[in-house]
Design brief:
The chain is mostly beta strands. The protein folds into 6 domains: about 20-425, Glycosidases (TIM Barrel); about 460-545; about 560-635; about 655-735, Immunoglobulin-like (Sandwich), CATH 2.60.40; about 755-1055, no CATH class; about 1065-1110, no CATH class. It is built from 15 helices and 74 strands. Strands 1-2-3-6-7-8-9-10 form an 8-stranded parallel beta barrel, surrounded by 4 helices. Strands 47, 48, 51, 52, 53, 61 and 64 form a 7-stranded mixed sheet that branches. Strands 54, 58, 59, 60, 65, 66 and 70 form a 7-stranded antiparallel sheet that branches. β45 and β46 (about 725-735) form a beta hairpin. α9 (about 245-255) crosses α11 (about 300-310). The longest helix is centred in the N-terminal third of the chain and has 16 residues, at about 170-185. It is globular.
């Protein structure tokens, strides 16, 4: 069980309700209630539903963007390609209709939020205001590198130029739009793609400008991480708005969709930002409406249970998505009213608990597939992950739900609550809601007119500005004394002062050196903190000095020159450091430098990376205890001293920096090499292949063809010098203009340095694989397989999305195929890798990109009988499981059977298809057998895989796959958990073969990466997967036609047990070129470099003959 205590953001705040809001019990603040996302609805449609929305308990409605370019019945995504930062007529409505909606909503206490797109405008001429075409208001810096924060805020999302958010005129235009919306009665803004707009600390005042309009609430769509120092950036965003936490929400949805519940209570809110700055959801409009369909095929009931888990928290708001009637990207249209399922009893009950419990602490508990969220003195929500009706018993977290007997507001069942346990029967929705009679929001909307006055400052005191504790305590001590008034753990209660928590050192007690600020077992900063008098402590354990927010140092501050951020006055020479998400590395502690301060003393100094909050000073085996890091005060062996420090007023000169990109390798003559120089060099010298170059500070482009001929190799050297010294850099390049394919034997397989089929004569292993499956998962799958089981090795990024349509997800990209067999089963393992992401859009999205996040197709083709084959088309007219005679995989490579299943184990009915007498597939029972295959997945990478080889760049030509050029190891591009491994247990009885048959005759197998109605890749490789890869998909020209074309497969499946035993007849050919080298293949089509005695196929040039080698 996990627990969390949460309280009101500030007990001093008051809650008021309008008459309309009071009628429906809606909160005054948007953050204190939940939001109905009326995606693509018109203003008129929303206005007609306002009474039902209010009755369902939603405190706000959210509208789609109203910035033009998306009229009624236009595809929804055009709303996110806006004409300007202003109200324009669209499928959502006119300015007058928006004004009418706001007035009607306010009568019922409902707030109105409008989605605003501010990161870009439509790039097409005539579809954006011409104001954007001048003065650098839109910039074209190329695609986004999501590993680089500057690129995230300055690069292009897709084909759109990036709006210059740093420009004061752009900021003023955006602020004017906010004011225009406010004048219509709009109460809040949802900022699309907020992480792509910088912050004041990054030199961008966009957010401080647009949020300066009084009386407006804001939240930003920030998917995954903002990049850079994510924790610090998220905290800064929340100075201006609330933010989304899609990572946590995706995890909750995934757990519930698998019949489970999450074990954790939050993501960003755990340690980084306050709960009252979070907006949760069960699914977003992108999850449902975009190509990757992360939630489209997940049932509404699963979504409701997911939403219930996140929608009744204290502080955090939650978005409920009204699903469109259509369910594909191009059929979802603007101005078409969506689902009204939000009126269901379980949704209204969750909202009622959320609204009634405003300001009451919550406690999250998770155990045995059940979640409870208890609200102090009010009630609880209980959610069963599997959604099945049944009795539950779960902890009454914190004892928050008052003891007694309750009637479930959803199903009417009876629950019994004690101080420790909640017991009762959850109904068929999987959701139960309990509310104590007479419960009201807290703080009381009618506060005591004569509250207790704030305590007076003592001589020594601290503040705590965290919002996650109901009643924090202070435990304080020094080397000789306990410094609290109680002298008993957990110490003294903190009181409220200046809207913060306050504690003063009791009279007669000595000044502490250490403190713990805590509530129960929850300690800020993780535990012991250094006591700094009159400081304000924060939730993460850091602090600032109370009463002195001015960063300008006082007269007693020490100034230390140089680019440092920590100063130490003790005797140790080395330093360890770590942060909340950055573990300490114990293998070695770097040595500190020395610097002289303005006080004449010598200090040890160092430049810590961003995000660090703990240090240890050491020399040899001697070291200090764990210390809380500060850059504001000189530190000693006990932590922060009272001496302030300022760094860098007289910076230490730095050598120039030189960066060469790419840093060597194979390049085309048309490519540019970029050399970036900084540090104000006084002299720069450079040479490329014996030719001198003139380079200057900044970015320098070098055209390869000016220095290298095709096939030539040369070295680029650069030296930059300034007063601090010199910096040298070099990189070696080979110019290769043409892609030279590796020779590929027809009808055999592609064999390169990276593609392998039956490598080293391996045909799988004759052994039992002990597979175990539960709730779609394959237990222990990552450790079941070894290199000896490998029968086909593919490469990463050899599916259509890598070459066209990088934005599509999930990604189904098979990388390696493993096999084993015994006397009962055939065992297969397929490693899928995630190495394809939208460089110009949302970047890496490992959660949404999992194959099991869609009801996609798994397709395994078999060659079971050398005398049989089939084309894999139902009655010879269309691909298996395809509609409207749509083409798909068509086999001309000896395949005679196909197994089909869902990428979501347990969904649908898998089938095993064998050949009809006329060589086709059929849905008739004689040829479409009920599958008895057991299968499941595991997140991660098989333990036997040490590299993930794939093309370095996206959108390459498919012929590059048939070379050894351009491949790099992508294994470190993303965490191993982003990849997925499936394993299959296939009864031999289903295949119609025996263990002896496999061992002596062998069978073939090929995995096909199906996306849409046709393969977009597969293992082993076949060129048909990519014969139309650069052509447009009929329903979305931004993606590939491979999803719907006919792929006639001619390359052979990998073999299991034994090589292909089919014979090769006599071959009549023209005479070979006597000067060509002879290449030999055995009768199974495998190359043999040193043939022994026997019969072989010999190729000389383009001619082949059957020969006897003696």
């Amino acid at each position: 069980m996990l627990k969390k205590f949460i309280s009101a953001a500030a007990l001093a705040m008051t809650v008021s309700m309008s008459a309309g809001a009071a009628d429906y019990g809606l909160p005054e603040s948007i953050q204190d209630g939940n939001i109905l996302h009326c995606f693509d609805w018109s203003c008129t449609q929303i206005e007609q539903e306002l009474d039902n929305i209010a009755k369902a308990g939603f405190g706000a409605v959210q509208l789609s963007p109203m910035q033009g370019n998306c009229n009624t019945n236009a595809e929804w995504f055009y709303a996110y390609m806006p004409y300007d930062f202003s109200l324009k007529g669209s499928g959502v409505g006119t300015k007058a209709q928006l004004t009418s909606l706001c007035a009607a909503a306010h009568e019922r206490g409902i707030k109105v939020i409008v989605d605003v797109v501010a990161n870009h405008v439509n790039q097409a001429s005539g579809y954006h205001d011409t104001w954007w075409d001048s003065n650098g208001r839109v910039r074209w810096n190329g695609g986004i590198n999501y590993g680089n924060r500057y690129s995230i805020t300055h690069g292009q999302l897709g084909d759109y130029g990036d709006v210059n958010s740093e420009d004061a005129q752009v900021q003023a235009r955006a602020k004017a739009f906010v004011e225009e919306l406010k004048s219509c009665g709009v109460d809040g803004i949802r900022w699309d793609a907020a992480k792509h707009i910088g912050l004041p600390s990054e030199g961008c005042n966009f957010w401080s400008t647009v949020t300066s309009v009084p009386g407006m609430w804001h939240y930003g769509e920030i998917l995954d991480s903002p990049g850079g120092d994510g924790n610090a950036l998220m905290k800064e965003y929340t100075k201006y708005m609330s933010v989304t936490d899609n990572g946590y929400c995706d995890g909750v949805r995934g757990a519930v969709n698998s019949g489970n519940v999450p074990s954790g209570y939050g993501g960003w809110s755990v340690s980084t930002i306050a709960d009252n700055k979070v907006v949760y959801w069960a699914e977003s409009h992108d999850d449902y409406s975009n190509e990757w369909q992360a939630s489209t095929h997940i049932s509404q009931a699963v979504i409701d249970r997911t939403w219930a888990i996140v929608a009744c928290r204290n502080g955090a708001s939650s978005l409920y998505f009204s699903r469109p009637a259509a369910n594909t990207r191009t059929t979802i249209k603007m101005g078409v009213k969506g689902s009204t399922h939000f009126t269901s009893k379980e949704i209204a009950a969750i909202n009622k608990l959320r609204n009634t419990a405003v300001g009451h602490a919550d406690y999250f508990s998770s155990a045995n597939g059940v979640v409870s969220v208890t609200r102090k003195d009010v009630g609880a929500a209980i959610i069963k992950g599997n959604g099945q009706a049944g009795n539950v018993s779960i902890a009454n977290g914190g004892g928050y739900c008052p003891a007694g007997s309750y009637t479930d507001l959803v199903d009417g069942g009876t629950f019994t609550v004690t101080a420790t346990t909640i017991s009762g029967r959850v109904g068929s929705t999987g959701i139960a809601v309990l509310i104590k009679d007479g419960s009201t929001p807290n703080p009381d909307p009618n506060p005591d007119p004569e509250p207790t006055p704030d305590p007076v400052d003592g001589d020594h005191y601290i503040y705590f500005d965290g919002t996650s504790f109901t009643q924090p305590q202070v435990w304080a001590w020094n080397d000789t004394d306990n410094c609290t008034s109680t002298g008993v753990w957990g110490g003294d209660n903190m009181s409220r002062k200046d809207n913060m928590w306050y504690w003063a050192v009791p009279a007669g007690k000595s000044l502490p050196t250490q403190i713990i600020i805590h509530e129960g077992d929850n300690k800020i900063g993780g535990g012991d903190l250094n006591y700094v008098d009159k400081a304000t402590y924060h939730q993460d354990g850091t602090f600032t000095v109370a009463g002195n927010p001015d960063p300008t140092p006082g007269p007693d501050a020490v100034t230390i020159p140089g680019d440092y951020n920590i100063a130490y006055s003790g005797s140790h020479t080395n330093i360890y450091y770590w942060g909340a998400t950055t573990p300490v590395t114990w293998e070695g502690a770097p040595a500190m430098e020395t610097a002289t301060g303005s006080d004449g003393n010598t200090y040890k100094v160092y430049k810590l990376p961003e995000g660090m909050n703990n240090v240890i000073f050491k020399t040899g085996s001697a070291q200090t205890k764990d210390l809380t890091y500060t850059s504001e005060y000189i530190m000693n062996d006990n932590g922060a001293t009272s001496t302030r420090v300022v760094f860098g007023s007289n910076p230490v000169p730095a050598k120039p920096t030189v960066a060469i990109s790419p840093n060597g390798g194979t390049v085309k003559g048309s490519a540019n090499i970029t050399v970036t120089i900084s540090g104000n060099p006084t002299a720069v010298t450079a040479d490329f292949n014996g030719k001198a170059l003139t380079l200057t500070q900044g970015s320098n482009a070098i055209l390869v063809s000016s220095y290298l001929n095709d096939g030539q190799t040369g070295t680029l050297t650069v030296k930059a010098v300034n007063d601090a010294g010199e910096t040298n850099a070099e990189a070696t390049f080979t110019r290769t203009d043409a892609i030279v394919p590796v020779p590929v034997p027809e009808g055999d397989n592609l064999i390169t340095d990276y593609y392998k089929v039956n490598p080293d004569g391996q045909f799988g292993t004759n052994r039992t694989v002990n597979m175990s499956f539960s709730s779609a998962k394959a237990d222990g799958a990552l450790s079941h397989w070894t290199a000896k089981d490998l029968i086909a090795q593919g490469v990463a990024r050899d599916v259509a999305q890598a070459m066209k349509g990088n934005h599509e997800r999930p990604v189904v990209d098979s990388y390696a195929l493993y096999a084993a067999y015994d006397n009962t089963n055939l065992y297969l393992g397929v490693q899928f890798v995630y190495t394809i992401w939208d460089l110009y859009g949302e970047g890496k999205q490992p959660g949404e990109s999992k194959p099991y996040n869609m009801d996609g197709r798994l397709m395994i083709a078999f060659d079971l009988d050398p005398t049989k084959s089939f084309d894999g088309y139902i009655d010879g007219t269309k691909g298996i499981w395809n509609d409207d005679n749509a083409p798909g995989a068509k086999f001309a490579n000896g395949v005679d059977a196909v197994w089909m299943g869902s990428t979501k184990p347990g969904v649908g009915t898998p089938g095993f298809f064998i050949s009809t007498p006329d060589g086709h597939a059929s849905y008739d029972a004689a040829y479409c057998k009920t599958s008895t295959v057991a299968y499941g997945y595991a997140d991660g990478l098989a333990s036997c895989i040490s590299n993930i080889w794939g093309q370095k760049e996206f959108n390459f030509e498919p012929e590059a796959l048939e070379t050894n050029n351009g491949f790099v190891d992508l294994k470190d591009e993303i965490a191993e958990s982003a990849h997925t491994f499936y394993e299959f247990r296939i009864p031999l009885s289903l295949l119609g073969v025996t263990e002896e048959y496999i061992r002596t005759q062998g069978i073939g197998v090929q995995y096909l990466d199906v996306y849409g109605s046709s393969p977009v890749g597969g293992t082993p490789y076949d060129p048909a997967f990519f014969d139309n890869v650069k052509n447009d998909y009929s329903m979305d020209p931004s993606s590939s036609q491979e999803k719907e074309d006919e792929d006639i497969l001619t390359f052979m499946p990998a073999r299991i047990g034994a090589a292909n035993t089919s014979s090769v007849g006599d071959i009549t050919v023209e005479p070979a070129d006597d000067d060509a080298p002879a290449v030999y293949y055995n009768l199974q089509g495998m190359r043999v470099d040193n043939p022994a005695n026997g019969i072989y196929i010999m190729r000389k040039g383009s001619k082949a003959t059957k020969v006897m080698v003696r």
